[in-house]
Design brief:
This protein is of the alpha/beta class. About 30% of the residues lie in helices and about 25% in strands. The relative contact order is 0.20.
Length: about 230
């Protein structure tokens, strides 16, 4: 089963004046690591939002992890069960502890509070932050907060991780650590990993690079970096 099947997907905003996606066709294999590149405004973040059921298309079909998103009535349940999100600005809740942030995606899993904490501590250990469990997010460095975001993204045992510029606000050394942890988790758990990035060094780590320009995929193969004509 493919992780992603998109066919003829269109999306526009402001009464059709802004065309974000213009007939997108895309297939991503289960367990694949894919990067999506393109200039600002090219449609790559809109594409990611479609895959994560954060937005719906004007037309076309989207099937993710075996779910027809254009026909599904309960997208909240789909997101809670199948998708892990990582954003550039981590989006941690500031007034609860690190471990409580990670527990949030587990609320749909009918676990006891003891089980949720144990799972969250295990995930924190996976990213090297188990000793930070009970402190507040504002006491962490930017890199540590992003590692917490990775742990949180895995809290619902997702089949797909969607990362939108996950290292965009970090220095190069911290970015390398974050990327290594993401790739290790992808390989260890066979999770499909889809990263939107402006950084060509990040893009080249993927199994495949997808280039988006003006709402269209202009290249989706292994040779896309060689043939690239866009400035990311």
């Amino acid at each position: 089963m493919n992780a992603v099947d998109m066919k003829n997907v269109y999306k526009s905003y402001e009464n059709g004046n802004i065309k974000a996606l213009n007939g997108i066709d895309l297939t991503i294999a289960d367990g694949e690591f894919v990067s999506i590149i393109g200039p600002s405004g090219s449609g790559k973040s809109t594409l990611l939002n479609m895959l994560g059921a954060l937005d719906i298309p004007d037309s076309g079909s989207i099937n993710v992890a075996g779910h027809d998103l254009t026909a599904s009535k309960n997208l909240n349940e789909f997101r809670a069960e199948k998708i892990g999100f990582i954003f550039q600005l981590h989006n941690l809740i500031p007034n609860i502890s690190v471990v409580e942030n990670i527990e949030i995606p587990m609320f749909t899993q009918k676990l006891s509070s003891k089980e949720m904490r144990a799972n969250a501590l295990k995930l924190l250990g996976d990213v090297g932050l188990e000793d930070k469990a009970d402190i507040m997010p504002n006491k962490l460095s930017g890199g540590e907060r992003q590692r917490v975001a990775i742990a949180r993204a895995l809290a619902n045992n997702p089949s797909i991780i969607l990362a939108d510029e996950p290292t965009g606000s970090l220095d190069s050394k911290t970015s390398s650590k974050i990327l290594k942890q993401l790739i290790d988790l992808h390989e260890d758990k066979n999770v499909t990993l889809i990263i939107v990035t402006h950084d060509m060094d990040v893009a080249k780590l993927a199994d495949r690079v997808i280039e988006v320009l003006d709402g269209e995929i202009i290249s989706a193969g292994d040779d896309s970096l060689i043939n690239s004509k866009i400035d990311v």
